[in-house]
Amino acid sequence: MTAQLENLPEGFDPTDPAINEIGVPHAEFLALRKHAPVFWVEQPPEARAGMEGGTGYWAISRHEDVSLVSKSKDFVTSENTAIIRLNSEITREEVELQRVMLINRDPPDHTKSRQIISRGFTPRAIGALHGTLQEWAEKIVDDAIAKGSGDFVEDVAAELPLQAIAELLGVPQDDRRKLFDWSNQMLAYDDPDYDVDPAVAAAEIPGCAMGMAEDRRANPARRHHHQARHRRHRRPRTPR
């Protein structure tokens, strides 16, 4: 096996962002799948910042093995989260805060929450949004044409997903830009174009969610009325 892996770069770590700056390491992945489907990756401290459990990790590269591990109750996500590599300056306390996210939880807590959320993603529930989403998509294009110029990502590409996410989460449409800004700030901790503190945005999102939850408890019919209003007020498509 050692001879077959001798072409691997020294200290090869698939989670290293620098590797993907050069290109996706297809040849290295192929070598691992063929000759070392369970491969120990030793990491320096900055590569495993905030994580517990040793000085590296086992890289599983074959599909059937990945599937087996993913379904096994012997492996947990909640300890170090589902993120394979975190900010080199992140603290353990910050990692602990992320364990409340659904993707970072394990059964039975994960299963219980997923069963609640899945009710909003049945074929019937998604189908009920079709007309509204089509209406919004047409309006986005019409508004962009009328505007004549602008930022395509913000004005067009991001707008329909934002509106859809806001609708699914019950966030008022007027607040959808907040979701856009918060998510960008959380992901831009190492982007020199963003002078932001991702921890602030990370605190804003659950704060917003708790505020909406309190509002829903006080006004349980509000979401139903919000959706019904969209169904009643259909905007005719502008001929092109």
Protein model, in words:
There is one protein chain. This protein has 240 residues and is mainly alpha-helical. The chain has two domains: 86 residues, no CATH class; 111 residues, no CATH class. It is 52% helix and 4% strand. It is globular, with a radius of gyration of 23 Å. It starts with 16 loop residues before the first helix and ends in an 8-residue tail after the last helix.
Provide the fold topology.
Blueprint: H1 17-22, H2 26-35, E1 38-42, E2 56-60, H3 63-71, H4 92-98, H5 109-117, H6 123-128, H7 130-147, H8 152-157, H9 159-169, H10 176-187, H11 198-218, H12 222-232
Antiparallel strand pairs: 1-2
Give the H and E element order: HHEEHHHHHHHHHH
**What is the general shape?**
globular
Number of discrete helical segments? 12
| Unreliable runs | 232-236
Q: What's the mean pLDDT score?
A: 85
What would you call the quaternary organization?
single chain
Separation, N- and C-terminal Cα atoms: 63 Å
User: How many domains would you count in the coordinates?
Assistant: 2
Rg of Cα set: 23 Å
Strand count: 2
What share of residues is helical?
40-55%
The amount of beta strand, in percent, is: under 5%
Helix vs. strand class: mainly alpha
Largest sheet: 2 strands, antiparallel
Query: Major sheet: order of its strands?
Result: 1-2
Short summary of the structure?
The protein is mainly alpha-helical.
Keywords for this entry:
two-stranded antiparallel sheet, 240 residues
